[in-house]
Amino acid sequence: MRTRFDYQRAGTTSEAIEMLADLGDEGYVLAGGTDLYLDWKNGKRLGTVVDVSHLADLAFVEDGGEEIRIGSLTSLRTLEHLPHTDNVRRSLASLARVMCTPQTRTLGTVGGNIANSSAAADLPPLLAALGAAVHLVGPAGRRVIAVEDVAAGPKRNNLALAELITNVQIPAGPGVATYVRRATRTSLDIALVIAAVSLTVGTDGRIAEARICLGSVGPRPIRALDAESALVGEHLADLAEDHLEASGRLAAAASSPIDDMRASAAYRRYVTAVLTTRALGDAVSDLREGRWAA
Ligand SMILES: Cc1cc2nc3c(=O)[nH]c(=O)nc-3n(C[C@H](O)[C@H](O)[C@H](O)COP(=O)(O)OP(=O)(O)OC[C@H]3O[C@@H](n4cnc5c(N)ncnc54)[C@H](O)[C@@H]3O)c2cc1C
User: Fold this and answer.
1) pLDDT in tens, 73-82
2) What's the half-sphere exposure (Cβ side, CA atoms, 13 Å) at 35?
């Protein structure tokens, strides 16, 4: 049943924090409203929503070459238009393009996708593979946390009362190859499995850093740490298909999917291995061929 809720419009970020602090458990941030609307439609009692959707200082993209800052109110549609100048920007833009529908991408925001903490949210796994940090502001001041630490579980986050995501900071240095692979039943479905990988190669030609993050196969984004370790130190020229497949299997071992009406846990685990291997294969090819080197 849809219940009545109250509406407040914040004039500034500080005012939003004050309003939310006063409202306590009864207050909800309204950004694009695309997730909040679904929750409300499904019977969630919203109390009072605090509208921040018009706060221009939270809607920006600052492209500083080796770092990108994306304001929390930046729409998914804006992300879609990042220039394909390197692998990091290309992977963010390509992912945004397959999320939701054009209408939902126009309203839905980057901060909302992260804060909502759906187990199937698309952005957190890729942002975690990229080593992104989330900037927060609240009654106790400012703090910065890793994007994979925002979600506490399905639809629960680790934000304190009245804390807001202000922006996401994404490293975009040279020598990085990033890929995200996403399995769905139809193109409009939310992801059944997400595997995002990022490989950084050192000047000695060896993998200096590997980051693999999985989505939709656990209550929150999962870093596949054993699979990452199995890649670090390997020479790019020696990375054979069976090594990548073994990393894919290690990633699947780190997943903890559930059976639901969209797919079985066994299927999701199998697809995790396949998608991770494919994403790694694409990243290795790019690095070998020097594509997308910033
Ligand atoms: C038809 C449809 C298709 C969709 N398809 C996809 C898809 O393919 N992939 C996908 O990942 N998602 C999908 N979504 C989900 C949704 O569109 C995205 O998660 C979107 O990015 C949410 O952003 P929003 O601004 O609308 O969030 P809102 O609905 O405004 O907020 C979501 C939650 O986050 C909180 N919040 C919002 N902004 C902040 C902030 N700055 N600081 C702190 N808390 C905040 C809100 O209080 C609320 O709890 C879909 C939704 C719909 C309706």
Assistant:
1) 999 999 999 9
2) 21
